[in-house]
Amino acid sequence: xxxxxxxxxxxxxxxxxxxxxxxxxxxxxxxxxxxxxxxxxxxxxxxxxxxxxxxxxxxxxxxxxxxxxxxxxxxxxxxxxxxxxxxxxxxxxxxxxxxxxxxxxxxxxxxxxxxxxxxxxxxxxxxxxxxxxxxxxxxxxxxxxxxxxxxxxxxxxxxxxxxxxxxxxxxxxxxxxxxxxxxxxxxxxxxxxxxxxxxxxxxxxxxxxxxxxxxxxxxxxxxxxxxxxxxxxxxxxxxxxxxxxxxxxxxxxxxxxxxxxxxxxxxxxxxxxxxxxxxxxxxxxxxxxxxxxxxxxxxxxxxxxxxxxxxxxxxxxxxxxxxxxxxxxxxxxxxxxxx
Length: 339
Known about the structure:
Structural class: alpha/beta
Helix content: 40-55%
CATH superfamily of the largest domain: Nitrogenase molybdenum iron protein domain
Subcellular location: Cell envelope
Shape: elongated
GO cellular component, one term: outer membrane-bounded periplasmic space
CATH class of the largest domain: Alpha Beta
Largest sheet: 5 strands, parallel
Number of domains: 3
Family: Belongs to the bacterial solute-binding protein 8 family.
Keywords: Signal, Transport
CATH architecture of the largest domain: 3-Layer(aba) Sandwich
Number of strands: 12
Distance between the termini: 48 Å
Number of helices: 14
Radius of gyration: 25 Å
InterPro entries: ABC_transptr_periplasmic_BD, Bact_iron-sidero_bind
């Protein structure tokens, strides 16, 4: 794209020189020269910025982008895959599956969302700040501290389908960083995985989603629950159990293991929160917790081995790449059950 722009500019500039030379031969050529110059200026201006619409409205980012601060969990893996240079990051929140980014001490570290060092963003003097998820609550403060920067935030909106929101996120990042083809590839992969999971589901088998944290099993509600909730809508899963006042709590809703067992799901979807964060006292791998739970021994999903465990970094890496992996993993489980 840059090569094309430079070629166009050179052609326009060349045309301007020819017209300038002709101006001494007759009147009226001066106006043509002026028009060519104006056209060149317009082309140059268009090439020096990009406008996107985030959760707050239209945002214009000046180019080239020479310094970027990234605070959004969903964006780390995408930008790392695209080799986008990062000046400042919430490195303590970077998934452990991205060690080169997480451990790069040349990148100023904002820390985590609980006690962030927002002055590190100021020190990095970013032109662009990619915020979202855990850092949303600091957006206004960050913008006040960095008036020279444009802050964008594409956190999935609660009243919109998750597939559309994940697509919106990656497509806008692609537009900002001139990676539109790469973004489209991620969208295509996601849509294929979603369709595969839909095709593999029989429409009747009951499904239960849970979150394991600190050795405890929490209930992940359809529609609103962490990570898996929206998949009930996207795939059309039949819930094994529904409760009143369900939430999106990061540990899942408090419900007895016996109640989960009584619902006897045909399939279980498991999120291991501890695998993605520093393990604390009492934490165990989700697989161990599920398989060693006496109340769950007789559950159809456990007996038949129809339990899907999300990638270990999911809790801190819920982007379109992660969801593509989850959907393909679920499809594997569903397809295997049909054989």
